[in-house]
Amino acid sequence: MFSMNTSRKEPPRISRKRSLCDISYCDNPKEIPVEKPFVRIVSRPTLPKKKKEQPVIKPLIFLKSHLLSLGVEVELQSCQQLHDFFVEPSQAEIDAYGFDLLNAVRNQDLEALEKFHKQGRPLKCSNQFGESLLHLACRKSFAKVVKFLIQDAEVPLNVKDDFGRNPAHDACWTISPNWELMDLIVEQCPDLFFVEDVRGHTPLDYVRMEHWPSWINYLCEKGDKLTPKQLPFTKHNKPISAQGTKPVEN
Known about the structure:
The protein has helices at 20-23, 59-69, 91-95, 99-106, 110-118, 133-139, 143-152, 167-172, 179-188, 212-222, and strands at residues 72-74, 77-78, 195-196, 233-235. By secondary structure, it is mostly helical. It has two domains: 56-86 and 175-250, no CATH class; 88-155, Ankyrin repeat-containing domain (Serine Threonine Protein Phosphatase 5, Tetratricopeptide repeat, Alpha Horseshoe), CATH 1.25.40.20. The strands form two sheets. A two-stranded antiparallel sheet has the order 1-4. Strands 2-3 form a two-stranded parallel sheet. Helix 2 runs parallel beside helix 10 and helix 7 (143-152) runs parallel beside helix 9 (179-188).
């Protein structure tokens, strides 16, 4: 008869200081003891709590509230109700509108524009839909061209197209704000910010939401310079307290 060896082979002892990574490389996985080895659990560092972002109001609402806090109350005006505010194009100005002028604006060729101006070419020209050179320059965010048109060529800013959009609408409807361009509009005709187009939208309604905080800081900086020069407004003796007139931290 064969003798049977009843003695069991003892599994090797594993130090509790060893990690699971060391056990995974054992030659014989069956020899791993039943008891689970000691594994140190390292807690993850706690991340700092994010500050709750303060809600940002629309730039137009802020502008009206800010002026109200300075004692100036302005009501929005529809372009369809302003009969004496906008300067309508004449037939001569419509006839002067051509590709040579458009290319000069698109290329920001100030020498060509100055040459046309000295020749007596009206730079207040626009097409049959009322889209003027100022509309194009503001839409392209060409501050130098706009400065030449309104200061050297004396082109008025209070012009509109058939949708009632004035140059400030195009200046606000850009990829990013051009504060130099906005300074020109604020200095010459801040009234444009309070005029609605035929769809009931003011220029500030065309501002991208991601730029609202920057716009609020800009409007707060300008203060009473945004008071209309031609449109009617009410001047209060004492400033009226209004909410949401604090600048926003970027």
